[in-house]
Amino acid sequence: MVKLLMLLLLFFVTKTICSFGNRDNDILCNESERDTLLRFKEGLEDPSNRLSSWVLEVDCCEWEGVTCDNLTGHVKELKLANPQDDAGNFKLRGKISDSILSLNDPSSFGQNLYSESLRWLQRLRSLSSLDLSYADLSKVSNWLLEINKLPSLVELRLSRCKLNHITPLSHVNFSSLSVLDISSNYFNGFIPNWISNLGSLVSLDLRGGYFQGPLPEGFSNLTSLENLNVAYNYLNSSLPKWLFSLTSISSLDLHGNDFQGPIPCGFQNSSAVTYLDLSDISFNSTMPNSLRGEISNDTSNLTNLVSIDLSENAFEGNIPR
After folding, report:
1. What SUPFAM superfamilies does UniProt report for this protein, alphabetically (predicted)?
2. Phi/psi at 221 (5° precision)
3. Maximum pairwise Cα distance, the chain
4. What is the C-alpha to C-alpha distance for residues 66 and 88, in angstroms, rounded to an integer?
5. Could you list the residue range(s) of the whole structural domain that residue 223 is in?
6. One domain for residues 154 and 198
7. Is residue 9 part of a domain?
8. In angstroms, rounded to a whole number, what is the distance separating the alpha carbons of residues 143 and 139?
9. Based on the domain organization, do 311 and 204 belong to the same domain?
């Protein structure tokens, strides 16, 4: 028994010594990447003092918005969008510097800045998440061609970037994309057909993009789609039948468009839908093109429905039970 106790004591003492001995070997921020971030900071205006932790005395893996790899110490995530400032009123200001290319392929990158070119993305081929929401990209003429060079991209968020055109793509390299948000821009054209080739897409947000015409027929191939938001556009065809054959959709927002005619047959097949907004389907105050007709009893088959909005239309009759 005494020998056993001695062995246990020796084990705990050895473990404690090793723990203290390894304390100095903890993975710290990569020094060259720390210097890169400090140079990057020098070119920014920070009205809300969000980068106050970006100082030499603090390990850069502990800096606001910076996440490091636990094994290598390389910066793997850089998120500078202020989560408490959805309107962007206190955003960081300044140009996205080419010095950021010295980072070792961060897997996620978020900014609230402006850029005249996205060529700085070309060396970040391992990038899986790109969030440039609220960044001013109005002077970037080939934004889509540069982003198409990122084959590992899974999430792309370019909301409110002042984009005004979409270059046609003959081939989509980021075919693994699961989240695409290009909402609140000024595209003034048809929804691009290349979106139909994103077979892994789970969430698609095109609201407020000044899109015109019909929903692309190719969207019927997006069988993994769970969230579709095309609100506040100028889409003006009848609602396509295939839209309600996408049985994986749980959130569908079509409001504020010029869709015409009745809700098509097959509407009752959308059994996975929990949120449905078909309100205000006409920008004309007299509502000549509003969804019209009787509300079908088939709506009672939508057993998972939590919220439905059919206001500002020309429906008739009783609400089904």
Report:
1. L domain-like
2. -85, -10
3. 94
4. 20
5. 187-320
6. no
7. no
8. 9
9. yes
Q: What is the pLDDT of residues 142-159, one digit of tens each?
A: 999 999 998 989 999 999
On whether both 211 and 286 belong to a single domain, the answer is: yes
Interval 188-212: pLDDT, tens: 999 999 999 999 999 999 999 999 9
Amino acid (one-letter) located at 229: N
Compute the distance between CA of residue 113 and CA of residue 51 in angstroms, rounded to an integer.
Answer: 14
**Mind listing the pLDDT tens digit for each residue in 15-70?**
433 443 343 445 678 888 888 888 888 878 888 788 899 999 999 999 988 888 88
Which tokens is 120 given? 């700085």
CATH number of the CATH domain containing 99? 3.80.10.10
Could you tell me if 203 and 251 are in contact, meaning their C-beta atoms sit under 8 angstroms apart?
Answer: no
Between the alpha carbon of residue 170 and those of residues 173, 191, 291, 315, the distances in Å are: 10, 15, 36, 42
3-state secondary structure the chain: CHHHHHHHHHHHHHHHHHHHHCHHHCCCCCHHHHHHHHHHHHCCECCCCCCCCCCCCCCHHHCCCEEECCCCCCEEEEECCCCCCCCCCCCCECECCHHHHHCCCCCEEECCCECCCCHHHCCCCCCCEEECCCCECCCCCCHHHHHCCCCCCCEEECCCCCCCCCCCCCCCCCCCCCEEECCCCCCCEECCHHHHHCCCCCEEECCCCCEEECCCHHHHHCCCCCEEECCCCEECCECCHHHHHCCCCCEEECCCCCCECCCCCCHHHCCCCCEEECCCCCCCCCCCCCCEEECCHHHHHCCCCCEEECCCCEEECCCCC
- Cβ burial of 93 (10 Å; 0-12, 13-18, 19+) is middle
Q: How far apart are CA 162 and CA 207, in angstroms?
A: 14
Q: How far apart are CA 109 and CA 118, in angstroms?
A: 13
Q: Is the pTM of this model over 0.70?
A: yes
Structural domain count, the chain: 2
